[in-house]
């Protein structure tokens, strides 16, 4: 049925009253709903922008780290310190580094976290320490103990492993305990904490420094020194490889290992500590240590 203008007019007038609301209230309600949607959308956009900014900040922190060679993390070490670092027999080593050991694998994992390629430079221990101070390497990892003296010239990461200084002697030696070291010729690795401790305890005349632990042990076998003070893990490797040697039951010293770097390179220190904490939390560090050192 066709409708007249009156019918249309009635529908237009009656509808608002049938709903019980004034025409203005409907308009205000619609505007309010639009405003709510706009605010919700704006908040969502701001939240996404904030998350993106955070992600960009993390990426920039890793990419902005200054290294000796762009894109590479150069590590100085003394690869005569098994099981922490040694030259690989197959010439390839862990992930093609040419070396193997606890420090090598941990440094590789850290480099991966930072998006860098690990490069390992082998040298004597003293030179490995000074390399980070002179800008020849980014880090030194060689079973390095944090000491007040070393903290004067470089900074360190948090500790990643515990080291114990022990005494190697020939089987049948009259050295039965630490108390018997007085008056003996003590072999050590030059520049190590064992070298420093022995000089402090027994004087320079009683301490014979060598470039590496392997040379010190060879001199013990040859009878040129009476004992060798060195870290427990490499000591066990040397005793295993050389018949006629044994380790005293008494520990000489207990200390923590950390990675060293240039004194002013706090950006690298912070990045390494963050990566190190993540590798500790997910069990990577402990699994690397367990791979080389028995839990017994």
Keywords:
296 residues, alpha/beta, six-stranded mixed beta sheet, five-stranded mixed beta sheet, 10 helices, 20% strand, elongated
Question: Any chance you could write out the topology, listing elements then pairs?
Answer:
Elements: H1 5-19, H2 23-63, E1 72-77, E2 80-81, E3 85-87, E4 99-100, H3 102-114, E5 117-122, H4 125-133, E6 139-140, H5 148-151, E7 154-156, E8 161-170, E9 186-189, H6 193-202, E10 207-210, H7 213-221, E11 227-231, H8 232-241, E12 245-247, E13 253-257, E14 260-262, H9 266-281, H10 284-292
Parallel strand pairs: 1-5, 1-6, 9-10, 9-11
Antiparallel strand pairs: 2-3, 3-4, 6-14, 7-14, 8-11, 8-12, 8-13
Describe the protein in words.
With 296 residues, the protein is an alpha/beta fold. Helix content is 46%, strand content 20%. It is built from ten helices and 14 strands. Strands 8, 9, 10, 11, 12 and 13 form a six-stranded mixed beta sheet that branches. Helix 3 crosses helix 9. The N and C termini lie far apart (99 Å). 34% of the residues are buried. The N terminus is likely disordered.
């Amino acid at each position: 049925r066709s409708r007249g203008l009156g019918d249309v007019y009635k529908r237009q007038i009656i509808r608002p009253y049938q709903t019980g609301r004034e025409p203005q209230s409907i308009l205000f309600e619609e505007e309010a709903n639009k405003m709510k949607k706009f605010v919700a959308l704006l908040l969502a956009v701001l939240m996404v922008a904030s998350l993106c900014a955070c992600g960009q900040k993390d990426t920039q922190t890793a990419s902005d780290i200054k290294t000796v060679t762009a894109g590479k993390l150069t590590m100085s070490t003394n690869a005569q310190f098994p099981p922490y670092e040694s030259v690989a027999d197959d010439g390839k080593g862990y992930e093609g580094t040419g070396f193997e050991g606890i420090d090598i694998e941990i440094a590789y994992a850290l480099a991966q976290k930072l998006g860098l390629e690990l490069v390992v430079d082998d040298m004597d221990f003293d030179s490995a320490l000074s390399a980070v101070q002179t800008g020849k390497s980014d880090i030194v990892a060689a079973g390095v103990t944090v000491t007040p003296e070393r903290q004067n010239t470089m900074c360190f990461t948090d500790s990643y492993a515990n080291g114990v200084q022990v005494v190697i002697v020939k089987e049948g030696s009259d050295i039965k305990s630490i108390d018997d070291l007085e008056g003996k010729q003590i072999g050590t690795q030059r520049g190590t904490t064992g070298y420093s401790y022995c000089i402090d305890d027994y004087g320079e005349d009683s301490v014979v420094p060598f470039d590496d632990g392997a040379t010190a042990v060879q001199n013990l076998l040859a009878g040129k020194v009476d004992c060798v003070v060195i870290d427990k893990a490499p000591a066990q490797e040397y005793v295993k490889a050389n018949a006629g040697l044994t380790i005293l039951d008494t520990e000489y010293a207990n200390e923590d290992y950390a990675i060293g770097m240039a004194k002013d390179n706090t950006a690298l220190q912070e990045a390494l500590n963050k990566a190190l904490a993540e590798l500790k939390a997910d069990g990577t560090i402990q699994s690397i240590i367990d791979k080389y050192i028995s839990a017994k």
